[in-house]
Amino acid sequence: MFSSQILLFSLLLWSSIAESLAIPRSNDPRKYIVQLSSSTNLLSHIRNNSFLTHAGTAGIGKENLQGTDGTIERVYSIGNFTAYLGSFNADIAKELSASADVKQLFPDDMFRVGIEDINLEYGQAVKQSGIYEQQAPASWGLASISSKDLFWDDATYKAPLPLGRGVKVYVVDTGVYTEHPEFEDNRAVKGANFVSDESDEDLNGHGTFVSGIIAGALSGIAKDAKIIAVKAFNSRGFSSYSSILAAFEWIYNNHNSADRALINYSAGGRDPYGIMDPIIEELFSVGLNFVRAAGNEGVDACSYIGYNELAITAGSFDINGNRDDFSNYGECVDIWAPGKQIISANSRYKDGDSYFTTKSGSSFSCAHVSGVAAVFLVHGVFPQGLKSSVLGFGIRNQLGRMDTSDTNLRLYNNLDGFSG
C-alpha cells in the first residue's frame, strides 16, 4: 500500500513537472530558430520541404510565410547568415533538423541581461587644448581608464579630444531614456524596437545606464559619440533569439560602411548554439566592431559564451583592482574594465528619482570598453584594427585575484599616446 502511494505521488509529481516545463507533444507547435547552411538558398529550401510551400514560392517576403504544418514567421538575413523563426510541431522540427539545408534548429529560448543592483549621487568638466579633464567624475571607472597607475593620484577623468565625435554606438539592450540630461544635445536617439508588446522606452534601466557610461555628459567616456538605442530586451531584462536576430539584422541593414561605428552588447548570455559567431563575423565584415560582456556567473567564460577572435570580451574588476567574484573569467576574456559599483544615468529620473544610480556587472565593464573604443575610432584607429589597439594599449599585470588562465590586462585610454 505504501509503495503504491509512493508510485502515485511520483506519477503526479512527474506530471506536474512535465506540465511546468511545457514539454512539447508531437502535435503541439513550438517556436524554433532554423539556421540554414551558408550554401542554402531560402526559396530552394522552401520548395524542398513541402510543408513550407503551401503559401507559394513566388514573391515571398520576410514575414508570414504560411504552411499547412508550420508557419515561417520571420526571415533573418545578415550577410551570408540566413535563418528563420517558425512554429512547428515536434515531427516537423525533427524533419527540418535532418535536412541537408539546415545547419541547426533550436528553440527560440528566452535569456536575460545580467546585472547586480545598488543606489547613490555627482560631476564637473573643463576642456583644455587637446585634452578633456573632468574633476570628480561621476564614477571611479572614468578615472581608472585614464590612469596608467592602478591607484590614481586624483579622481580626474582625462581623455584626448575629440571624445568620439562622429562615432555611432549601437546599444542592443532594454532601450534608452533619451530625454535624460546625460544625453543632452541629442547624443542618444531611438533606433528600433524589437520587443513586440512594449513601447520603445527603457522600462528596465539597464540600457540607459550602459549608454550613460559610453557617452553620458557627466558619467560617460566618449561624450561626443552618438548612441543608437536598439531595444531587444523587455522591462524584466529578458529577450529571445528571435528578437536578438532582428536587432542585429536591423543594424546590419542600417549601417553605412563609411560610418565609424560599433555595437555594445552587454547581455553576456550563454550561447549554446554558437549563433553569435557567424553574426559577429558578418557585422565585422561591414566595419562594425562587437563589444560584449563576459557574463556574471563567476565561471570560466570559455564554457559560457566561448571565444570569438573578432569580438572584444570584457570582464569586471573593482575599485581596489581585484577581479570581481561575479565576473566570468579565463582566457576567453580579452580585457578587464571597471564593473563594480559604477555610477551612471538613472532611467527613473523622469519619475522624480535621483539623477544617477549605481549598478554592478560585466555589462558595465563592456560599456567602458565601448566608450574607449569609440574615442579610439577618431584618433586614427581603423575598425579592422580596433580590437588589437584596445588590447595593445591595455595595462598589464596590475589586477589581483586573477585566475591562472586570465589575461591580466586592464583597460586604458592611451591618453599619453593620443594627446602627446
Query: How helical, in percent, are the residues?
Result: 10-25%
What share of residues are in beta strands?
25-35%
CATH top level of the largest domain is Alpha Beta
Number of E-type strands: 22
Largest sheet: 7 strands, parallel
Calculate the mean pLDDT score and round it.
Answer: 87
In CATH, the topology of the largest domain is named Rossmann fold
Instruction: Compute the number of helices.
Output: 10
Strand arrangement within the widest β-sheet reads 12-13-11-15-16-17-18
| Strand-pairing-aware structural class | alpha/beta
CATH-level-2 architecture of the largest domain: 3-Layer(aba) Sandwich
Instruction: State the distance separating the first and last CA atoms.
Output: 86 Å
CA gyration radius, whole angstroms: 23 Å
CATH H-level superfamily title of the largest domain: Peptidase S8/S53 domain
The general outline is globular
Notes on the structure:
By secondary structure, the chain is of the alpha/beta class. It has 2 domains: 30-108, Alpha-Beta Plaits (2-Layer Sandwich); 116-410, Rossmann fold (3-Layer(aba) Sandwich), CATH 3.40.50. It has 10 helices and 22 strands. It has helices at residues 2-20, 42-48, 90-97, 140-145, 206-215, 241-254, 276-285, 362-376, 386-392, 415-419; strands at residues 30-36, 63-66, 70-78, 81-88, 102-107, 110-112, 116-117, 125-128, 131-135, 156-160, 167-173, 188-193, 226-231, 238-240, 260-265, 288-293, 312-317, 335-338, 342-345, 356-360, 395-396, 409-410. Strands 12-13-11-15-16-17-18 form a 7-stranded parallel beta sheet, with helices on both faces. The protein has a 5-stranded antiparallel beta sheet with strand order 2-3-4-1-5. A 3-stranded antiparallel beta sheet has the order 7-20-19, covered by helices on one side. Strand 8 (125-128) and strand 9 form a beta hairpin. Helix 5 (206-215) packs parallel to helix 8 (362-376) and helix 8 (362-376) crosses helix 9 (386-392). The radius of gyration is 23 Å and the shape is globular. The chain starts with a helix and ends with a helix. Residues 164-376 form the Peptidase S8/S53 domain. Pfam families: Inhibitor_I9, Peptidase_S8. This is Peptidase S8/S53 domain-containing protein. It comes from Tortispora caseinolytica NRRL Y-17796. One of its GO terms (biological process) is proteolysis.
